[in-house]
Known about the structure:
Elements: H1 6-13, H2 19-29, H3 32-39, H4 46-56, E1 59-60, E2 75-77, E3 80-82, E4 86-88, H5 101-112, E5 115-118, H6 126-130, E6 135-140, H7 146-158, E7 164-167, H8 177-182, H9 213-222, E8 227-232, H10 235-243, E9 248-251, H11 265-276, E10 282-285, H12 291-299, E11 304-307, H13 309-340, E12 354-355
Helix pairs in contact: 1-13, 2-13, 5-13, 10-11, 12-13
This protein binds ligand FNR.
Ligand FNR binds next to helix 3.
Amino acid sequence: AVDLTAASTSEALDDIVNVRDFEAAARDRLNRVHYDYFASGAQDEVTVAANEAAFGRRALIPRVLRGPGAPALETTLLGQPASMPVLIAPTAFHRLAWPEAEVATGRAAAAAGVIMIAAMLSTVTVEDIAATGAKLWLQLYVQPDLAFTESLVRRAEAAGCGALVVTVDSPALGRNERGDRNDFHDLPPGMRCANMGGDGHVRDVVLSPEISWRHLDWLRRTTSLPILLKGVLHDADARLAVEHGADGIIVSNHGGRQLDTTPASLDRLPLIADAVAGRVPLLLDGGVRRGTDVAKALALGAQAVAVGRPVLWALAVAGEAGVRRLLELMRGELANAVTLLGAGAPADVTRDQVVP
Length: 356
Ligand code: FNR
């Protein structure tokens, strides 16, 4: 059982200096099966490793004597202000990490002024997450039961969500072998997919290979909320997304949890940025662990990035306080990187400042 007293959480944070420190601390605190669920990827986890390695393969070139002044990190995405171009990626089942689950994450997001993308498979309802005051977007897996999908869309609208994030890299579940070895295929007793009908069992969630552009067209007609497609890696799909009325694209391989051996998301970003040519905002997730990683992604064509696993580690270490600390660390590192690069804002770092 996790000790939830304020003293224990602040003590847990004492030794945390960077984002990576959270993972080691979380590994100590989490049940092994749940740690594996968060950490794992598909099959050989080639893509999991590739995501982080892609940032390591790129170097940053500072510009000098530009007098950039104090860095301005604030940004606007799809008309919505955020305190920095770092979002919380949608990850399922926060209750495995911390009893207050997505409510703790939402409170931290609200305090930090960052956009949280809530997962459809959250363990508290989207309404309860919205009540934290976080700037919220809702991620969806389009369910073939369109009446159900529409009901979720209406709930997102009513809860004040600023956008829908449709995950398109999941016509089936990736093959997670750590999950197979641990026999982890559903939530423990007392936890459920709170947005879903019935008992909220994971096995009742449908990842359907029938989902197609027709469903996106349907969704486009069904809501006036901005729609982002998450999980695009092919430049032709990025063009199609724009043609079908998507308002944004998240370049992502699902943190290496779906098709293994895809390239790192960062490696696909420049090509997709060229294909989209500024028509819609681009986000990137996968392997972002440092302020310098954020700077690299923005220089290569993203307007913002999202972080997945680090949020889960921080939540497991100290709940809301942990996620607040994580976001502070990211903000501090990004501000420092931008200043050292000679830029006044993250968006001012240019493509020529990133080299192999
Ligand atoms: C995810 N991700 C994810 N994505 C999504 O669209 N719906 C979901 O329910 C989930 N669930 C989920 C659970 C866990 C445990 C992880 C680690 C990830 C993918 C997530 O949004 C994001 O694409 C990656 O996590 C980004 O990579 P990093 O930051 O974890 O390296």
